[in-house]
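Incident log, structure service

09:12 report received: a user says their structure output differs between two submissions of the same chain.
09:20 pulled the input from the user's history:
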Amino acid sequence: MLANLLNDPETRRQFEVSLSYRASAAYTAGLKGRTSLDFPVFPLRFPEPSTVLPAPTEWPTPLRRIVRFVSRQVATYPLLAYEVWLLRRLFIRLAPDVIHINNGGYPAALSARAAAIAAQLAGVQHVVMVVNNLAEVHRGPSFSVRPAIDRRVVNAVSRFVTGSAAASVQLQHVLKLRTGQSVAYPNGIALREASESRSETLRRLRVNESNGVLLGMVAVMEARKGHRVLLEAVAELMRDKRSPHCFTVLLEGDGPLRAELEAFVRDAGLRDCCRFVGTEANVMNFMSAIDVLVLPSVAHEDFPNVILEAMGLGKAVVASRIAGTPEQVEEGVTGLLVPPGEPRQMAAAIARLVTDAPLREEMGRAGRRRFEERFTAPISVSRYAALYQSLIAEDEL
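09:34 re-ran on a clean worker, output below:
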């Protein structure tokens, strides 16, 4: 969404734009790759709380958890104060009408919360904080630093924006927001172009077009994404002689669970129908080549862009009914939703789409229409522009 906002001509016509961000090589490379960089940029360097009291990996897990907790409590306030001081100086110099803070979730980044507090101290009248995941309920001890920081953030932020209504409800509950302080704006994306034809991609991946229906999953290989659920569903289908076997599962991505997932595929005898393809340089090539996108997430999900990309490309979707996915996928129309962590129901949904080509194709067409009506980048950007203008207009009343 930040790239969409920064690249949008109408937004740039209405507003003078600058971007400050926590400096890292990866973020800078992504920024250069996704934007024109014809606006002021301010990379900022902030230390990590975990570096104050590092916990060596050879220590027992309970001890490392205690050290990490103590480190956060000891380091958070000094680091927050430093980040607030640095950001306040920047905001006073820039004197923005609106500050847009992009946060991964809540609480997520300390720097995002520091930006809200710094904006208020710098006299910025309007602060928008985007929360891109479900907010975490505070479960720490009463003396934890988080509640005090939360109160300052809530007082500083004019509007919290979430990608889904489910996330908005969760955020209101966690932060006890006043009525109207949180709004839900569905994410919008600009579809990137594939650089290969479907046959070229399949040839490069060594996938034969006669391998049946191609099911694809695009996700970092972490427990929250539910790869194991998908693989258990495939194993269920392969054991059942009545189920269709005319499909191949392609797993794109990498991550800490890859070795474990590969071992499961080997031990379950799924090598003939499950392939690990690694991380694609242009994931649109992969997405364009598959027939159905599968996203079996089990936790820490909100409004996955990969589902929007699949819909934009006219692909049917099978996904977990979690957080904002029911707001993306229209059940039975653009795809199928199953309860998270349920391999048997996932298997049934896969079998239905594998065996019914007309349904699969109609769901893809319906998904494309839904994407164009609701989830394009211009639609989403226009919502943010209208929000900025409405906040600025409050000053004139």
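09:41 both user submissions now match this output. Likely a transient worker issue. Closing.
09:42 reviewer note: The domain at 198-374 is CATH 3.40.50.2000 (Rossmann fold). The mean pLDDT is 92.
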